[in-house]
Structures are given as structure tokens and as C-alpha cells.
Design goal:
Blueprint: H1 3-6, H2 8-15, H3 20-36, E1 52-54, E2 57-59, E3 63-65, H4 76-80, E4 86-92, E5 105-108, E6 113-116, H5 125-134, E7 143-148, H6 159-170, E8 176-180, H7 195-216, E9 222-226, H8 232-244, E10 249-252, E11 273-275, H9 280-294, E12 299-303, H10 309-318, E13 322-325, H11 327-332, H12 335-343
Parallel strand pairs: 3-4, 3-13, 4-7, 7-8, 8-9, 9-10, 10-12, 12-13
Antiparallel strand pairs: 1-2, 5-6, 6-11
Helix pairs in contact: 6-7, 7-8, 8-9, 9-10, 10-12
Length: 344
């Protein structure tokens, strides 16, 4: 294993002495600097190769990067070099937005968890696409997912327009597109997970996808990212709508509003979405129910609380076809990627 990976525990001690969002931005800048230096790039190990086909896409391995770490798609190649089998970036919105006021990202080290209320902070679709076009990952055979959302200032009755605008923009550059309707940090966004609202959105997206497929000569899979805080009835309703509107997959799950497993810890009462191990069992329950209801025709990508290879394997055993990492990467470092690939 690369010395670069072994050094992460030392770097983490320094990074955790900084504000969480500052550390996040610093880590991405330093990773990019290492990647951009031809000689230092040798520190990156060869990615683990365990091919798997999901939604007709040939993944190098079934462990991917979850959206949110690189919201602007500015570090795709550097992040992919850590060994991911596929990479997802975003969430992007049509117009730039600052997100919620700082501080808005908090560590809960005793639970190896994070709480964020970032609020889809990003530089907007135009800057996002410029970054994506500069990356080499797809040209070199990598699978790239682009995650789309709505602007906070867009009224809910116009939300579909924002998603369609983003789909139009990202379609030529994506191997799959994720429709994020489950962030808890944009007011009322999760209402789009309701039956009527979700059906309207998915119908519009599928119709636009058909037109774009004709235009570009290829059909790009559409995936919906859902929350862990859904009732069984809500999960069942979503499972019914996904194939009806030709959705290719579902990402289960986003962050949770549940706090029972971190009660009493510093920052536990901060508003926002909780990620990390406290989400793992919630995510597993949603994955199991989805697989039971969807059969084998719709792909499931499991995400939420993976901090070990055992957790990754549990996601697969619950019914996921592939997994994604985020918070576990912050606490464990890039060695977690290979551990999960081997466990799966």
C-alpha cells in the first residue's frame, strides 16, 4: 500500500485541529497539488480492480465516491486516483449559491460521524460543467456520476424546471445522473419524495431523458437519491414509481435527521443531516425493503455509515449492487477504499 495512504492518520490529527469545512477545503487542495505533480503522483497506488456491471456500466470496482465531497467537480481525477471504482460529484444547481451560513459542518468524533447543513453550496451549472469537461477520468474509462438539485430560492412549484435545466446541462458528460431529492438542508426538498410530487418529477425527467437520448445517441441512466428517514409505506411508494418512470437505480441513503445514536455528544443537536455509522442500520433497512419490492431489475447503490469492509459487505448482502463512501473516508482515509473492495 502507498506510503501516501499510511500517512493519513498523521494528517488527520492535524486536519481535525481545524474547523471541519476549512479542513475539507484544505484536503482537496493538497490532494490536487499532489496529483498535479507528475513525480508525486506515483504515491497513488494502482486502483483495486474488481469489475462489476451496474446499470449497464462497467465499474472498475464496486466502491464509489458519494456526492457532496466534490460539489463543483473540480477534483474528479485526483479523487478517482485514490482507487474508487466510480466517482459521483455535485450536487449542482442551475445558479450559483452560497448555501447556509457558517459554521455548517461539524464533527462528532466519538461516533465517527458528521453533521452538515451546507445547503447545496456550489458555483452553479456553468462552472460545474467547465470543471467536468477538463477532467480526464471518463476518457480513461472511469464511470462518472453527476448529481443534480434545485436552487434554494426556486419555489417548490418550479422545482421540476431546475432539475430539467441541470439534466440538459450534465447529460453529455455523465455516465449516470443522480436526482437528489433527499437533502435535509434545502427547505421542503424532501417533499419531492412524496408520491404525487415524485411521480410528476420522474415523469418529466424520463421524458426529457428520452429527447436527450435521441439528440446524443445514447441513453444515460437516471438514479434517485432518497433519505433514510422514510416510513415503510413511503419506501414502497417510491419503489413502485421508479420502474414506472424508467428510473435505472436508487441511491440509499442520504443523511438522517435522527439523533438517537448520538444523543448527548458535542454538536449532536446541531441542525442538519447526520452521516457516518449512526446511519448504517437505517440505510440497511431501506436497502432491504427496496430490494424486496424492486426485484433485480433496478440497481441499488448503498451509502450511509460505511466505516469498514464489514459495513460495505453488509450493504451488498442487504441488496446493494455497489456502495459509496463519504464520512468513512474522512475518518479512515483512503485505505478504506481497498478494504471495502476486498470485503465485497
Amino acid at each position: 500500500m502507498s506510503l501516501f495512504f499510511h500517512a493519513y492518520p498523521l494528517a488527520r490529527a492535524a486536519l481535525f485541529s481545524l474547523d471541519a469545512e476549512t479542513a475539507h477545503e484544505l484536503t482537496l487542495r493538497r490532494l490536487q497539488q499532489v496529483y498535479d505533480c507528475r513525480h508525486l503522483r506515483r504515491l497513488f497506488p494502482a486502483p483495486p480492480v474488481r469489475p462489476r456491471t451496474v446499470m449497464g456500466l462497467q465499474l472498475r470496482n464496486p466502491v464509489g465516491l458519494a456526492a457532496g465531497l466534490d460539489k463543483n467537480g473540480a477534483h474528479i481525477d485526483a479523487l478517482a486516483a485514490l482507487g474508487f471504482g466510480f466517482v459521483e460529484v455535485g450536487t449542482v444547481t442551475p445558479r450559483p449559491q452560497d448555501g447556509n451560513p457558517k459554521p455548517r459542518l461539524f464533527r462528532l468524533p466519538r461516533a465517527q460521524a458528521l453533521i452538515n447543513r451546507l445547503g447545496f453550496n456550489n458555483e452553479g451549472l456553468e462552472a460545474f460543467l467547465s470543471n467536468v469537461r477538463r477532467s480526464r477520468f471518463r476518457q480513461e474509462g472511469g464511470i462518472l456520476g453527476l448529481n443534480i438539485g434545485k436552487n434554494a430560492t426556486t419555489p417548490m412549484e418550479n422545482a421540476v424546471d431546475d432539475y430539467l435545466t441541470c439534466l440538459d446541462g450534465v447529460y453529455p458528460y455523465a455516465d449516470y445522473v443522480t436526482v437528489n431529492i433527499s437533502s435535509p438542508n434545502t427547505a421542503n426538498l424532501r417533499k419531492l419524495q412524496g408520491g404525487d410530487e415524485l411521480g410528476t418529477l420522474l415523469q418529466a425527467l424520463d421524458a426529457r431523458r428520452q429527447a436527450l437520448a435521441d439528440q446524443y445517441g445514447r441513453r444515460v441512466p437516471l438514479v434517485v437519491k432518497i433519505a433514510p428517514d422514510l416510513t415503510t409505506e413511503q419506501v414502497d411508494a417510491i419503489a413502485e414509481l421508479l420502474p414506472r418512470h424508467s428510473m435505472d437505480g436508487v441511491i440509499a441513503t442520504n443523511t438522517t435527521l435522527e439523533r438517537s445514536k448520538v444523543q448527548g455528544l458535542p454538536h449532536a443537536e446541531e441542525a442538519g443531516g447526520l452521516s457516518g455509522p449512526p446511519v448504517h442500520e437505517l440505510s440497511l433497512a431501506v436497502i432491504r425493503r427496496l430490494r424486496e419490492r424492486l426485484g433485480t431489475q433496478t440497481a441499488i447503490i448503498g451509502v450511509g455509515g460505511i466505516e469498514s469492509g464489514v459495513h460495505a459487505r453488509e450493504k451488498i448482502e442487504a441488496g446493494a449492487d455497489a456502495v459509496q463512501l463519504y464520512t468513512g473516508l474522512i475518518y479512515r482515509g483512503p485505505a478504506l477504499i481497498g478494504e471495502c473492495v476486498r470485503a465485497i
